[in-house]
Structure formats: C-alpha cells, structure tokens
C-alpha cells in the first residue's frame, strides 16, 4: 500500500504544535475569534497551509445544527442584473464562511417549489428568494411547511410576509421623470409597463405619481411583458401622433437599448431627437451609443443586505421577522438624454 493511502490526516493538534500554540488557540483561529493576536493567527494559518490541514466543517456544523449553506433562488441566472445580486450575496457569505447554492426558477412557480424542496433536501440553513411571476399561497404554505428562514429579494409577495430587501423602484422612476422635466421634456412615455409582480407594479406607480406631480399627460404608456419585450407597434403609433413623445422612461436597460435601436431605424437619433432612460445600470448601458442614462437599482447592495439579513435570522431564530430594507437608487445621467455623464 502506498504512503499516500496510509498517512493519517493532519489534526488540529499537529497544527498547534507546528505553530507553537495550544490546541485551544488553534481552534479559536478556525472560529475567527477576535481574541487571538494577529501574529499568532498568522502563524497558525501558515502552519495549516504548510501541513495541508483540512477543516472538518461538516462535523463542526453538526455540533452547531447548521450546514453553513444557504439557497439563492432566482428567476433568470443568466442575466447580468442577477449576477450582480449573486456577487453581493457571495461577498457577505464568504465573510461568514457560508456557501451559496444557486437555483433557477425561470419564473415558473411550480419549478420554484421544486427547487426550494431540493435545497431543503440539501439541508440549507435558509434561502434568499426572488419570487417567480404568479407565486401564490402555495408558496407560502410550502415555506411554512419546510420551516425554512426566507428573505425575499427584489420582488415580494405580500401574503408571504416576512423579510424583504429590494430597490426603491418607485422613487427611481420619479427621479427619471423629474430629470426629464427639468431638461424641458413634457411628453414622456413609459415603455414596458406591466403588472406581473411587485417590482413592475412599483415602477408603474412611480410613473403615474411623477406625471401627476408635474402635470404631465399620464396616459403615455406602452405595455411590456416578460423576456424584455414591449409593444413595438404601439410605440410606433405614438411617434406618429401630432403631439408625439420626445422622451421615454423604460422598464429596464434592455428595453431602453431596444428603444434606441428602434428610434434609429425610424430616423430619430437618441440623445438628440429623443431622450431615453433605462433602469438597472447594466454593463451594456455605459457602452451603448449613445451611452444610456439609467436608474441604478444597486442589485449588488441588495444582495449584500439580503445575505446579511438571512444570516441574522439563521443565527437568531427567535427574532421576529418582517423587516423591510429598501435600497435607494441613483440616476446615472449619460448621453442618451443629450447630456454629459453625471450621477444624481
């Protein structure tokens, strides 16, 4: 039998001896205790690395009755918007030595339930959930049955109750309309309106409130739907009316970029003949021509705050939930409004 098959695993006591500390001190380093001096911590870490010590996290988790994993259930894991959310979650989880298991509901309530059940089978300690379109009391019943700590993110289903972290979509739309009015625009259309989930409804409410506040015509709305589509024919008809719009606030950046392409195909130059504002501040927005003005909904920060809130619920299960954390947006002004770059 080869040496690699007979050699015993490196123990924490081996690490302690190599670092010249007690086993208790080495254990404190593993638990990231602030009671250990930096120089001592460094010696222990270096000893772990040189000896090839592997922490038996499974055994430690059994002692704590936790697995050190959480589930993240999204509806479109291929979107750069959700990638930013995932990065924020991962940052906080990395600091807490927590592993994230990602699942994709593809906006299907049935698949969402199946994914949550599978995550529970893997004994995740809790989940962050962006509810699928059409989520109803079935989801609420299932989460209650599984007794799983849950933080809703970006979208929320009222009947679920509990914790929620999201962007202030309404105030973001209001900022966009206020900026356009300040630049002299009075015929502003909202492109991509829908009422499929809370994030969409809040955008609609923001536009209605802002147009009323500034005395604008509130009926300039072009419907949208899932998969970043909007009613192109209705948009074209609006452009042919006597008092056609001269600016658009769009449901998101993808629709805004498509609107700019449509305007160019009709002989209108975005930023010069027609102002366009998107939402989400995707990487494509800054690289567009002209660069797209957008409402930054800060999904990375939403992810960080959602992960921190879930970790708090897992660590202190007796605390009453129902906390709502709303991340304020900012308006990133670029050339699609005919102006130089700025943030508001």
From TrEMBL:
<dbReference type="InterPro" id="IPR028082">
    <property type="entry name" value="Peripla_BP_I"/>
</dbReference>
<keyword id="KW-0678">Repressor</keyword>
<dbReference type="InterPro" id="IPR010982">
    <property type="entry name" value="Lambda_DNA-bd_dom_sf"/>
</dbReference>
<dbReference type="InterPro" id="IPR046335">
    <property type="entry name" value="LacI/GalR-like_sensor"/>
</dbReference>
<keyword id="KW-0238">DNA-binding</keyword>
<protein>
    <submittedName>
        <fullName>LacI family DNA-binding transcriptional regulator</fullName>
    </submittedName>
</protein>
<dbReference type="Pfam" id="PF00356">
    <property type="entry name" value="LacI"/>
</dbReference>
<feature type="domain" description="HTH lacI-type">
    <location>
        <begin position="10"/>
        <end position="64"/>
    </location>
</feature>
<keyword id="KW-0805">Transcription regulation</keyword>
<keyword id="KW-0804">Transcription</keyword>
<dbReference type="GO" id="GO:0000976">
    <property type="term" value="F:transcription cis-regulatory region binding"/>
</dbReference>
<dbReference type="InterPro" id="IPR000843">
    <property type="entry name" value="HTH_LacI"/>
</dbReference>
<dbReference type="GO" id="GO:0003700">
    <property type="term" value="F:DNA-binding transcription factor activity"/>
</dbReference>
<dbReference type="Pfam" id="PF13377">
    <property type="entry name" value="Peripla_BP_3"/>
</dbReference>
């Amino acid at each position: 039998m080869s040496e690699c098959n007979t050699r015993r695993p490196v123990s924490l006591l081996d690490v302690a001896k190599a670092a010249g500390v007690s086993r208790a001190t080495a254990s404190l380093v593993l638990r990231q205790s602030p009671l250990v001096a930096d120089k001592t911590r460094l010696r222990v870490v270096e000893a772990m690395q040189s000896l090839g010590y592997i922490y038996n996290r499974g055994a430690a988790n059994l002692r704590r009755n936790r697995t050190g994993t959480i589930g993240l259930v999204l509806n479109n894991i291929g979107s750069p918007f959700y990638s930013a959310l995932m990065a924020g979650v991962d940052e906080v989880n990395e600091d807490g030595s927590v592993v994230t298991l990602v699942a994709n509901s593809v906006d299907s309530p049935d698949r969402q339930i199946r994914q949550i059940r599978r995550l529970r089978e893997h004994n995740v300690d809790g989940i962050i959930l962006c509810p699928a379109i059409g989520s109803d009391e079935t989801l609420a019943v299932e989460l209650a049955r599984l007794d799983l700590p849950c933080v809703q993110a970006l979208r929320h289903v009222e009947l679920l109750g509990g914790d929620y972290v999201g962007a202030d979509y309404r105030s973001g739309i209001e900022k966009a309309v206020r900026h356009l009015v300040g630049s002299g625009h009075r015929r502003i259309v909202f492109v991509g309106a829908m009422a499929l989930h809370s994030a969409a409804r809040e955008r609609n409410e923001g536009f209605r409130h802002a147009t009323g506040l500034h005395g604008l015509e509130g009926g300039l709305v072009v419907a949208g739907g899932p998969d970043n589509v909007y009613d192109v024919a209705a948009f074209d008809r609006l452009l042919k009316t006597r008092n056609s719009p001269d600016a658009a606030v769009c449901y998101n950046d993808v629709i805004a970029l498509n609107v700019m392409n449509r305007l160019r195909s009709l002989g209108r130059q975005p930023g010069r003949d027609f102002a366009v504002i998107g939402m989400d501040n995707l990487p494509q927005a800054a690289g567009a021509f002209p660069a797209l003005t957008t409402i930054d909904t800060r999904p990375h920060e939403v992810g960080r705050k959602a992960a921190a809130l879930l970790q708090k619920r897992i660590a202190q299960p007796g605390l009453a939930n129902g906390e709502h954390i709303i991340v304020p947006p900012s308006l990133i002004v670029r050339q699609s409004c005919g102006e130089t770059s700025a943030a508001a």
